[in-house]
Amino acid sequence: MPNDIDQAPLVGLIEHMRSCLAYPDRGIPDTLGWLRDVICCDGIILCQVRLSPASSIRHIANHNYHPEWVRTYLAQDFGTIDPVIRYAYLASNIYSWEDAYKHFEDCCPATFFETAAHYGLHTGFACRFYQDNSEIMTVCSLCVESNVLKPTARWVLYNAMPALHTATNGMDKNKSIRPLSLRESEVLKWASEGKTVWEIGMILSLSEGTVKFHLRNIYRKLDVTNRAQAIATAAHQGLI
Q1: Each residue's pLDDT tens digit in the chain (240 positions)?
Q2: Residue 27 and residue 136: Cα distance in Å, rounded?
Q3: What domains appear along the chain, each with residue ranges and CATH number?
Q4: Residue 233: in which H helix or E strand, if any?
Q5: Regarding beta strands 56-62 and 124-130, do their DSSP bridges make them parallel or antiparallel, or are they unpaired?
Q6: Any transmembrane segments, and where (predicted)?
Q7: Rounded Cα distance, 164 and 123, in Å
Q8: Nearest to 87 by CA among 97, 77, 78, 74
């Protein structure tokens, strides 16, 4: 613990660790929001990765990355090539995006870097946590302009990771995220704004039957049974 840290981050860390473990659905996003404020980063996202097959995304909790980046990330299967995820296997706890990018710049497609840059993801840091003999690793990635992470920021991030890992590991066991298609994302977006099936069909020039077909696919992919659950789950995963 840094010598110059005040009590507020310590108290906040304890409260959010308890919240994560007791109420993961609410505690994880609340903790990410708290970390964003303490660390003063532009964006923060939590990815849980299944190590086998290589880097398959098991769960995403998006605090304020652009939803379209998350959708593209999943649809393009970027988790298998993302240098920040791949470098987590080599790094010790906290590391910079710059180090990860340099290490994999020759074997990562240019489209990944171009797409990330399009959404303002240029510089940042990440922290990874996994337990020995586990097939699951959790990575928290922060978009920050500075190339330096202050000691207090490092301390709270490092110490929050075990609770975030445990809480996320207990959610949606044995399930991997299945990305929504562009059309499914459009349907869900309008559904989240309260539009009826008929209204969504008029907006997207689709029949009511086709809209219902897309909604059924959305429910299946998100493992939910109704519109309200789909909207809540997609919002939690940063898909809308």
Answers
A1: 555 556 778 788 888 888 888 888 889 999 999 999 999 999 999 999 887 656 678 888 888 899 889 989 988 889 889 999 999 988 888 999 999 999 998 889 999 999 999 999 999 999 999 877 778 899 999 999 888 888 889 999 999 999 899 888 876 544 556 778 889 989 998 988 888 999 999 999 999 999 999 999 998 888 778 887 788 777 766 677
A2: 20
A3: 7-173 (3.30.450.80), 182-237 (1.10.10.10)
A4: helix 227-236
A5: unpaired
A6: none
A7: 23
A8: 97
Nearest to residue 72, comparing CAs of 128, 118, 3? 118
Cα 28 to chain centroid, rounded: 11
The H or E element that residue 148 is part of is: none
Residue 137 in 3-state DSSP? strand
- For the beta sheet containing 94-96, the strands, ordered from the edge strand earlier in sequence to the opposite edge, are 56-62, 43-50, 136-143, 124-130, 94-96
Angle, in degrees to the nearest 10, between helices 67-75 and 110-118: 160
Question: End-to-end CA distance of the chain, in Å?
Answer: 37
- Name the pTM for this structure: 0.73
Confirm if 80 and 92 have CB atoms less than 8 A apart: no
Full DSSP string of 154-195: HHHHHHHHHHHHHHHHTSSTT----PPPHHHHHHHHHHHTT-
Closest Cα partner for 116 from 58, 157, 69?
69
